[in-house]
Write a structure and sequence with these properties.
There is one protein chain. The protein is mainly α. The protein contains 5 helices and 2 strands, in the order ααββααα. The protein has a two-stranded antiparallel sheet with strand order 1-2. InterPro entries: Glut_rich_SH3-bd, SH3BGR, Thioredoxin-like_sf. One of its GO terms (cellular component) is cytoplasm.
Amino acid sequence: MICHPSNYFSNIKKKQQDVVRFLEANKIEFEEVDITMSEEQRQWMYKNIPPEKKPAQGNPLPPQIFNGDRYCGDYDSFFESKESNTVFSFLGLKSRLASKAEP
């Protein structure tokens, strides 16, 4: 199968939208950064992804998820954490259930 570039970028966009929808639905504050518009932001992202998380060839593709300067992971890691109900831990946040249980 040959992926047409527009399908390729469409897939990236769908993944980005999935992350954004989750964050919005859970009222988690976030900043969305378009690395296509800023070489500085793109270089920051590449520099702050741990070497063991970078692909063997090429550059990591968006979405890449950070909590401040802390690297959380890529979309696949995000999706896995969502499926296993560990996404708040993945994001470095307290679970909503834990914060509601505290007096």
